[in-house]
Amino acid sequence: MRGICGLLLTVLICVGCTRTWLMDAPPQILAPYYPNPVFVQARDPIILWENLVDVVDNYFKIASESPVRDLGGVVTEGKLDTRPKIGATLLEPWHRDSADQYSRLEATLQTIRRRAEVQVSPREGGYWVSVLVFKELEDLAAPTGATTSSATFRNDSTLNRVESPIGEAEVHAGWISLGRDTALEQRIVEEIGARFGVVPAATVPEGISAPSEK
Q1: Concatenated DSSP letters of the chain
Q2: Cis (ω within 30 of 0) for the bond into 200?
Q3: Would you tell me how many other CB atoms lie within 10 Å of the CB of residue 97?
Q4: pLDDT of the chain, 214 residues: tens digit per residue
């Protein structure tokens, strides 16, 4: 009995001595950071747009395009929208929409989807390219595998009636917004920057302004 008590006391002393070391956060390693929006230099708007589509297509399927056009010396703005994509899990390493291991683990444990918007604004000498990636969590009325007492107790909502069939349907029905996925934004911006020779900043600057979500 005394031996067990002595062993427990030794373990508690060791834990107390190492508590500070266990709770200390590891040193943060700052990765190179690409500003978002990023400024790229391109003379031909067609080549610019083809490269943007080629990069985004590696992560999402394109839903709609409004390319940059040169109309008699006047260059218009461009916008690209993608279809929502269910997040890649740990068992799907060939999909690239989950930017890191945490995102893959999160998508493995629950249903996550993402969609992207790319906005291009012409400026003197080049273009400002803004990449926005929005992340959403599936919102279910009840667990999909719950079958107990389903015949007697109903937890789902009442019948939804469409009052006005004219107009756009709600895109985010059944999904909860989780904000922006900046890790995936950085990966896409990095690939765009690499194609146009954009050099990233050394570290993440403090107080940098985020691109507009409008």
Answers
A1: -HHHHHHHHHHHHHHHHHHHHHHSPPPPPPPPB--SSEEE--S-HHHHHHHHHHHHTTTS-EEEEE---EETTEEPPEEEEE--EEPP-TT-TT--SS-SHHHHHHHHHS-EEEEEEEEEEEETTEEEEEEEEEEEEE--SS-TT--TTTTT---S------S--SSPPPTTTTEEEEEE-HHHHHHHHHHHHHHTTPPPBSSPPTTPPPPP--
A2: no
A3: 27
A4: 555 555 555 555 554 554 443 344 444 445 678 889 999 998 888 999 999 999 999 999 999 999 998 888 788 899 999 999 999 999 988 998 998 898 999 899 999 999 999 999 998 888 999 999 999 999 877 665 555 555 555 555 555 554 555 555 455 568 999 999 999 999 999 999 999 988 887 654 444 444 444 4
82 strand-pairing partners: 62
Q: Which two tokens stand for residue 45?
A: 């708007």
Query: What is the distance between the alpha carbons of residues 138 and 173, in angstroms, rounded to a whole number?
Result: 9
Do the Cβ atoms of 114 and 85 come closer than 8 Å?
Answer: yes
Phi first, then psi: give them for residue 65, nearest 5 degrees.
-135, 140
First vs last C-alpha separation in the chain? 69
What is the token pair recorded at 31?
A: 């990765």
Q: Does pTM surpass 0.90?
A: no
Token code pair at residue 143: 């667990």
